[in-house]
Design brief:
Largest sheet: 7 strands, mixed
Number of strands: 9
Number of helices: 10
Strand content: 15-25%
Order of helices and strands: EHHHHEEHEEEEHHEEHHH
Helix content: 25-40%
Structural class: alpha+beta
Oligomer: single chain
């Protein structure tokens, strides 16, 4: 938390002033919020890292296409970016490629999935939009004030990034890329409705981009990663105007609950949520005796979450 001072209120240093979909999702349980956002305790590092690498390839690919690159050149730009971000330059001048024991999410599987994605949608009707300055609408940052004041006397902010903004089926949508090891069937898509990210992104599209013909929904491109194959599906998940208005009220209620936890200096477990979505990633940690729990936390990798950090190309 010390590395992200701008995220927290000056008068209540344990309370976020800006909230994104990840923070709001974690707030389903105050303890999960404390572990995942404030402390940034990393679980399933392979999922976190592989998702970042795949998204980096898609970003470079879309930027190249919008700037007029030929298809093959754009694909190579994406591959190059994926290989670059999934490597580290160590002392002694040696490049070390990222490796994982999860073969579904290996470096090879990610490159293959990206290349197959570009071939699958080679003649795509989807087109990435341009921003007002002419730059590609990729990694689009947005911020909007909420009708709720923070302890510093300023409006709380809802913030976030879209992977892109795309024109598809004669409407404009926030465009998100998803990776999964599960099957791309009805059960997979049900997780997006209701869903914190979907509802928040639709709300932001209505408020932050009123000059665009934005649809009431989010366009998702999902890829199923496996050892021997990759599969793709695309779907638009929609909301109605009343659903968006209701979600705005829900956001404020969630934040108020977290503010009370910050004032109390305690983030309790919501045990009814422990087995949601197949089980919380911090289930084993919460199951430890409080007297020894800190010892386990000390040995965990920590990446405190800050949705206000600027993402570059």
């Amino acid at each position: 938390m010390a590395d992200t001072p701008d995220l927290y209120c000056k008068s209540l240093p344990t309370m976020q002033r800006a909230w994104d979909a990840h923070s709001l999702s974690a707030a389903v349980c105050p303890r999960k919020y404390q572990y995942s956002v404030m402390m940034g305790l990393v679980h399933r590092k392979d999922i976190l890292d592989s998702g970042i690498y795949y998204h980096s390839a898609q970003e470079a690919y879309q930027r190249a296409l919008v700037r007029g690159a030929e298809f093959d050149v754009a694909v190579l730009a994406g591959i190059r970016k994926l290989l670059e971000v999934s490597s580290t330059y160590e002392d002694g001048g040696q490049w070390k490629p990222w490796a994982t024991s999860n073969r579904n999410r290996s470096r090879f599987a990610l490159v293959r999935a990206f290349v197959w994605y570009t071939e699958h949608y080679k003649n795509d009707t989807l087109k990435t939009e341009k921003l007002s300055d002419g730059s590609p609408a990729v990694e689009v940052s947005w911020r909007m004030p909420l009708p709720l004041m923070n302890p510093d006397g300023e409006p709380y902010l809802a913030v976030g990034y879209w992977d892109g903004v795309a024109n598809y089926s004669e409407r404009i949508w926030p465009h998100e890329h998803k990776t999964t090891e599960g099957s791309l069937g009805d059960f997979y898509w049900k997780r997006f409705s209701p869903n914190t990210q979907t509802s928040t992104y639709v709300l932001a599209s209505r408020v932050c981009f009123p000059d665009r013909d934005m649809g009431y929904g989010v366009l998702f491109d999902a890829v199923q990663l496996a050892v021997g194959f990759a599969r793709f599906q695309r779907k638009v998940i929609t909301r109605t105007a009343p659903q968006v208005e209701e979600w705005l009220k829900d956001i404020c209620q969630k934040i108020q609950r977290m503010e009370q936890c910050a004032r109390d200096g305690y983030w309790p477990k919501e045990e009814a949520a422990c087995m949601m979505y197949g089980g919380c990633e911090y289930l084993d940690l919460c199951n430890k005796d409080p007297g020894i729990r800190d010892k386990y936390i000390e040995g965990m990798e920590k990446r405190p979450w800050n949705p206000l950090l600027i993402r570059g190309e």
